[in-house]
Amino acid sequence: MAPLVANYYLTNRIYLDPESSLAEDMTAVEDANLTDVARNLSDLRRLGVKYINLAGTEPLLYADIQQVLTLAKEQGLVVSLSTSPNLYLKQARKIKGLVDYLNFSLDDDNIIFSDKSASIEAGGSLLAGIELARSLGEYPVLNFTINLQNYHYLEAIAKLSQSFGVRVWLILNSLGAIGEDSPVSHHISGMSAVIEAVTHKYSHIGYNKAALAFLQAGGNDRQNPRCQAVDAAISISTDDRLLMPCSHIAQTAIPIEGKLFDLYQSSPIIEKSRKFQGKMPPCQGCTLWTYMIPSFFIGVDKYWWLNQLTYAGEVLARRRFLQRA
Ligand code: SF4
């Protein structure tokens, strides 16, 4: 079966305040070469990949982003891009109509968290980014990476996003080791209760039910791995390497050199990585979103069902939401 998703790292640069002392260092990092990207996008399509996630720290800092998006659309790939509203405001017209899923990340850059009252306040760029996107015919969704430190803010985020008339999608990402004996596991139930209560009250907040159930169960089990990183997703680094089994461990980084299709079809290294997916020491308790969600599309079990239900429900919810908007 062909991998469903490709995580493509175009740049490792991060968006920083121009005043920051780090800004110069980060601009020295080499970005992906456009010729390599074009060749790989074509091979991804030949391999049967359907969905491309423009990953990396900030894809909109990639100089040729417009060309990459155009090429991806020409290959018929569904494109997801996550960015900060701040940067979107500068690049919006360049990418107009080229992104299927435009996500704004909610973080310290655009949200002011008040610890005492668990309230939040939007930074100026958030509403401006949403309004600009809408004026250009885009439908941005706010991605909130929820964790044990910030889940108390979920209701405040629900109210704010409701006032902006925008949907929120919860990212239930890695929370570190969450095996049965981990102290973290004792707090997961508190966070789950908040997620379930708030999403029940506010229909414009969505989350993946399979991901929450997986988190509650302690994440990936090395002895009986649910992670199918190699079968479900392809990850390509800025220096044109195939990261195996996933970008998190990247135990092997195979130079692609224009042979992505052949590599993925027949390389013994890929075959070997496949045998180790989800079974290495760092895999215990892993809940990495970018690999687990595609993995839930493989093999029929309760996570497969919950994942299917989630996406069917989310498609309907987004359709209804857009009709109302
Ligand atoms: S379980 Fe996590 S760390 Fe291990 S291969 Fe899968 S995604 Fe990578």
TrEMBL record:
Organism: Merismopedia glauca CCAP 1448/3
Protein name: Radical SAM protein
